[in-house]
């Protein structure tokens, strides 16, 4: 059951927030959806799933990306989930990069996190089912995200290539097993057995991708991003892509940082990129 | 002296925040400026001043309006001041609609507010002087704003028609002397002599406007705005405009509310409106 929290007209369409009790994360989850003008049961639209970064909720992208004008023109719905389970019963740490706001889009295996921290199941299965049941959308799906959410988008697309038409990311963590953010999260959510970490690492997953299931993949990265060298490491992923011939385009942008100002500068291009494949 | 607090590339231009000690408000003031790509001492650009609404700072418009792509294309700089003086030494009330965050763009005459609450002088005189001294801009200025800031834009343009090429507003308080927000603010900032209030009331000012100093004026208003009937009252201003033949266009929009989602839906049209006059 979906509880409608808000409904706001924007760019001729509607931005709406909902809450529901998740069977994946065993807590109330909030998400937001943008429905372009004209979306209806007789005119269903495809969906771009957007995964946000550390500390974010469903609101950051919707308020700051400036995506609605283009999405309205292209007829694409956008769904933004939260970045983790939330609430007093959900284990947390006093840390911006672990716990609430930092679910890393995986299924935790370690106590006390394994009850609630199942964002992989939530984003891959539960949320699309809910969206397709309750809104005028087709089953055509693309996926994108920023930073931790860029990791989520790439990793989820690589593991589920038949579920998405295309994948993109802004400033993604491309190789979490090889950076401090990813190591901190994976060691606590997944435990010390690093063989389990590879299931959530885009570089490792791309090495094993089947060429008949390759997806169009676009990444945009600013070269003035404070996290570029230590945490994001796009060159690690492009090296794998070159090795396996994965159709990855990495666009480096001089002078741009890690903020939503960067995302807002290029989100229209990402929407147009996905539209090429969503409309097929 | 300007203290640069941030510089972020966006839409090919730059978003920058500055702090300085104001001679008008006698406290540190923060403002933000967007400079479009290519702005330089040999290619100066005109400026749109944006005045925000209750509770806002320089950040709300810059983060949520989605204005930069269009402003970059048109070659318009945007300057967003704060909405009041700030700081521990600045008198305040525990109220969202009075005191800090609610300066109403006037010069207060009543103690204890009259030392710091001089946002009229700040926006009309001090800030443009600073901007024209420190940035690659021409002296061509337009002005716009939202809600309390819409009041500010209309009122300031009506009082200083030679300083601006054009004026626009989203969901403005058009007749503050006739609504609870305005009466609460004006009575405490300006005192009980209501003849003084008329100096800051757009309806009263428009009645006295000289026809040879009329400015192009555009207002956009959503009809699902919770504040429309009690606080904003655009019909009061259109009645005066009709009476004096002021060139005001009011666009009512079905289904839109008072939020930045509304602003983001129509900001491109406001920028194009101002560009018509800024480029002359």
From TrEMBL, chains A, B:
A Pfam family per the record: Esterase
One example GO MF annotation: S-formylglutathione hydrolase activity
UniProt entry keywords in alphabetical sequence: Hydrolase, Serine esterase
Enzyme Commission designation: 3.1.2.12
Hydrolase among keywords: yes
UniProt KW Hydrolase keyword: yes
Catalytic activity: S-formylglutathione + H2O = formate + glutathione + H(+)
Purpose: Serine hydrolase involved in the detoxification of formaldehyde.
Family named by the database record: Belongs to the esterase D family.
Descriptive protein name: S-formylglutathione hydrolase
UniProt organism field: Pseudoalteromonas rhizosphaerae
Lineage: Bacteria, Pseudomonadati, Pseudomonadota, Gammaproteobacteria, Alteromonadales
